[in-house]
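for the recovery benchmark. C-alpha cells below, seq after
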C-alpha cells in the first residue's frame, strides 16, 4: 500500500496537471493534503482539523494584498480577485471575510494590477463620458 506522502503527491500531481500552480502553491497544497490524509489515517475528524487551522490566517495581511495577486487568508491561494473564490470555496461573503480578518472597506479584494487594467479599459472605452452624458440627460428630464 502507498504511503500517505505518495498518495498526497499523486493527488497534487493530478491537480497540478489541470491547474497552473506556482512552486509555493504546490508546496502549500502538498502540506495541506498530507495533513488531511494523515488525519484520516489516524481516524480524526477533518472538520476538527480545519477548525484548528482557521484560527490563524494562512498568510499575513501584508503579503495577502500584492500588486499582481491577492492571497486568500484562509487557504493561502493567490487570485486576481477574491470574491468568487470566497463564495465558491469557503461559502463566505466578502463582508464576512473582511470582518473575520479585520480588513478595512478601503482595501480592495482585487489585485492592484487587475484594478488598474480594468480602470484603463474603462477610460479607453470612454465609459466615464457616457456616464456623465446619461446623468446630464436624466437631469434634463
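predicted aa per position
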Amino acid at each position: 500500500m502507498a504511503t500517505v506522502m505518495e498518495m498526497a503527491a499523486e493527488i497534487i500531481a493530478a491537480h497540478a496537471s489541470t491547474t497552473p500552480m506556482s512552486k509555493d502553491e504546490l508546496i502549500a497544497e502538498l502540506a495541506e493534503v498530507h495533513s488531511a490524509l494523515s488525519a484520516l489515517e489516524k481516524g480524526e475528524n477533518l472538520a476538527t482539523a480545519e477548525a484548528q487551522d482557521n484560527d490563524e490566517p494562512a498568510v499575513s495581511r501584508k503579503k495577502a494584498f500584492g500588486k499582481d495577486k491577492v492571497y486568500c487568508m484562509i487557504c493561502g491561494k493567490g487570485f486576481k480577485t477574491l470574491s468568487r473564490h470566497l463564495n465558491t470555496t469557503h461559502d463566505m461573503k466578502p463582508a464576512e471575510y473582511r470582518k473575520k480578518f479585520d480588513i478595512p472597506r478601503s482595501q480592495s479584494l482585487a489585485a492592484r494590477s487587475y484594478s488598474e487594467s480594468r480602470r484603463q479599459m474603462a477610460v479607453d472605452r470612454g465609459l466615464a463620458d457616457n456616464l456623465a452624458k446619461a446623468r446630464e440627460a436624466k437631469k434634463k428630464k
